[in-house]
Amino acid sequence: MAITITTGASIGIDAPLPVQSASRLIKNHPAGMLFRFCKYRVENDCALVEAELEQKLSIGAPGFRGALGCLIDCVVQLASHDPLGDSGITELEVGYGEPWQGGPVRLDAQILSREDGLAIFSCSVSSLRDGAHLAQAQGTLCSAGRESGFNRVGVVSQLA
């Protein structure tokens, strides 16, 4: 069961994450204002997204890494949404490869494990133009409905 949405294509709805939920997540996430989601597929704890910066934006090189971080956050939430529900990244580590110049990108996010409202994820980012490796991210998502998960992470953050 998968959702695949391509600009200008018909939308299939036989998926664990309803199309309306995926569209709503993208629309309400800051990445939805920064990027145009050209194509995405959500299936079995994975999300594959092709996106490009909105043409009206001019963020320049200093803003590119922040924009990628925002996009990673959105794509990982797409990958985890069905079983975890609304969630947020509580830990994120990003290693950057080739410098990104703002061209179209492909993100491949996977949920690696889940336990008690927490999910461990990885996400790779590559250039759609030449396939160059731009970034590799990993981290932890916490379900918004699991207050104890947020508190547990908050305590760890305060002690670190």
Word description of this protein:
The N and C termini lie far apart (about 40 Å). The chain is an alpha+beta fold. It has one domain (about 5-160): Thiol Ester Dehydrase, Chain A (Roll), CATH 3.10.129.10. Helix content is about 30%, strand content about 40%. The chain has four helices and seven strands. Strands 1-2-3-5-6-7-4 form a seven-stranded antiparallel sheet. Strand 6 and strand 7 form a beta hairpin.
Topology:
Layout: E1 3-6, H1 19-28, H2 31-34, E2 35-43, E3 46-53, H3 60-84, E4 87-96, E5 105-115, E6 118-127, E7 133-143, H4 147-159
Antiparallel strand pairs: 1-2, 2-3, 3-5, 4-7, 5-6, 6-7
Describe the structure concisely for a colleague:
The chain is an alpha+beta fold and 160 residues long. Helices cover 32% and strands 39% of the residues. The protein has 4 helices and 7 strands; from the N terminus they run βααββαββββα.
The secondary-structure element order is: EHHEEHEEEEH
Query: Which CATH C-level class is it?
Result: Alpha Beta
Please report which band the strand proportion falls in: under 5%, 5-15%, 15-25%, 25-35%, 35-45% or over 45%. Answer: 35-45%
CATH architecture: Roll
Going by helix content, strand content and strand pairing, the class is alpha+beta
Radius of gyration based on Cα positions: 15 Å
The general outline is: globular
Q: How much is the average pLDDT?
A: 78
How much helix, percentage-wise, in residues?
Answer: 25-40%
* Uncertain regions spanning at least 5 consecutive residues: 1-16, 148-160
Spatially, the strands of the biggest sheet line up as 1-2-3-5-6-7-4
Q: How far from one another are the termini?
A: 41 Å
CATH superfamily: Hotdog Thioesterase
Count of helical regions: 4
Task: Give the total of domains.
Answer: 1
The CATH topology: Thiol Ester Dehydrase, Chain A
Largest sheet: 7 strands, antiparallel
What's the total count of β strands?
7
